[in-house]
Amino acid sequence: LHKRDSIMNDLHLPQTPNTPAVTTDLATGVVTMAGDSYPENPFEFFQPLIDWIDGFLHRQSGPLSLVLDLVYLNTSSIRAMMDIFDRMEEAHRAGAKVSVRWSYDPENERVGELAEEFRDDCTFPFLIEPRF
Prior knowledge:
Blueprint: E1 12-13, E2 21-25, E3 30-37, H1 42-59, E4 64-73, H2 75-93, E5 98-104, H3 109-120, E6 126-130
Helix pairs in contact: 1-2
């Protein structure tokens, strides 16, 4: 049985002091992430999410939407997010509907700037909104 043939399960990862809450919804194609991201083992934390996104993009015809409310990201989390956005960009160029909506605290300028840096590398809809 290939990994691709296995049934995709949604992810429900609770927020911890150093990892964001992550929820995926296969039915709607919505992935939400909220909180701080500086996991001790970034590969272990992000790989299931990257695998889920890959699986979704390869098998679903519906849109994929990331809804982010990330407060702090360390360097390895930034790399993982770049990976995710690269996959979304590739899918977008192949005709898939993908989008990102990133809310952030306007007092946390660094996250706003980071979101803008990510957006600069993407051609798909990427909304950045300060939350009040």
